[in-house]
Every structure is written in C-alpha cells, then in structure tokens.
C-alpha cells in the first residue's frame, strides 16, 4: 500500500510519519507539504501515486481539494487533526501518529 502524509512545510510532522511507518507491513510511504516553501511540495504525481492520503490539519485537506480536486475523487483522504506543535521525531508526535493512524492501518 502506498501512503502519503501531508503537512504544511514537510519539515516536522509528515517526515516523522514517513520515517516511522515506511516499510512497516510492506507500506511504501512518502511525505510532502502544501506550502510554497515546503521541503518537498505535494504534486499531482504524489496524489496519483498514493492509495491513501493522511493530512495533519483541515487546512491541508482544503489546499489539496483546491489544487487536486479531480484527482482526489477516488482517493481516501483522512485528516489526523495534529497541530503544528511538534519537532521531527518528537516522542509525543510519534505516539499521536501511531494512535490516530491505527484506526485506518495496521501499525
């Protein structure tokens, strides 16, 4: 299964999710950001590639819909509702990610 995690700048939350879930249960995981200054900016290629997309906040879902609405019509997109309060590999962030993603995937 191909999983995409999306946050704003692709610096803390989505790269943490990519690191902790990649390779588990055969998952292929990538991460990207929605903002202009993102480390890796989300593209049509990311959306087309992903089987499931997790966004960190409602605003990320809206930005994806604004830019990729047609491509998202057959995609499962889930808002994890995780605020931008954490740094890369923060233990609390890891615990929250595992708990919220476990509702949708085997982790």
Automatic annotation (TrEMBL):
Organism: Fredinandcohnia quinoae
Domain annotation Phosphotyrosine protein phosphatase I: ranges: 1-107
Name the record gives this protein: Protein tyrosine phosphatase
Superkingdom as given in the UniProt entry: Bacteria
InterPro entries per the UniProt record, alphabetical: Ptyr_pPase, Ptyr_pPase_sf, UCP029416_PTP
Classification via Gene3D superfamilies: 3.40.50.2300
TM spans (from-to): none
